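Summary of Year 1 activities. Much of the first year was spent building the evaluation harness for sequence design. The harness presents a backbone, in tokenized form, and records the residue chosen at every position. We chose the following record to illustrate the format because it has been used consistently in internal testing since the harness was completed.
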């Protein structure tokens, strides 16, 4: 037993030995993965917060567009469901076409989601509000699908696509 204890490596030195050297390509790739992981986490927090923020503002939004109450905003709820479903369908077909560049689509959709969410209180009519809610949920559907699909292969036009439904967090693929 004494020999086993003496032959075990130092636990404190093991993590430092496993990290790549500073300035090497591996260290840069590791930093890039951590940044991508943080960006995906922030986008999923935003994806969860957008519907939660929309609910409590319904009376104020209805008053802003000149409606008698939140019940008159039914078209925005219809747009919300239809456009979220359309966003997931669009993202599913786009990820097949763009392959490894799906992260760029995800970033564009996350930006569109943020812009529509920020512009939501500025809608002056029911039509504008419905368009903003539709755009927000179209982008949210794209973010939801692209954030959950990892694609390490070529686009579909090369017929070598292999998709797996796993989180991309800290995956071996590059983000952009």
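For this record, the design step produced the sequence shown next.
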């Amino acid at each position: 037993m004494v020999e086993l204890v003496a032959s075990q490596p130092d636990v404190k030195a093991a993590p430092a030995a496993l990290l790549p050297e500073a300035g090497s390509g591996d260290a840069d790739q590791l930093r890039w993965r951590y940044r991508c992981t943080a960006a995906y986490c922030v986008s999923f927090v935003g994806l969860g917060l957008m519907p939660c923020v929309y609910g409590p503002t319904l009376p104020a939004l209805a008053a802003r567009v000149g409606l008698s109450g939140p019940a008159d905003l039914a078209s925005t709820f219809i747009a919300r469901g239809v456009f979220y479903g359309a966003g997931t369908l669009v993202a599913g077909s786009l990820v097949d076409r763009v392959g490894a560049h799906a992260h760029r689509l995800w970033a564009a959709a996350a930006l569109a989601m943020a812009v529509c969410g920020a512009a939501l209180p500025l809608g002056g009519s029911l039509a504008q509000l419905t368009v903003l809610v539709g755009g927000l949920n179209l982008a949210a559907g794209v973010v939801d699908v692209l954030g959950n699909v990892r694609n390490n292969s070529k686009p579909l036009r090369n017929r070598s696509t292999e998709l797996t439904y796993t989180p991309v967090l800290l995956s071996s693929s590059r983000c952009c």
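The chain has one domain: 32-62+72-164. Quantitative recovery figures across the full test set are reported in Table 2.
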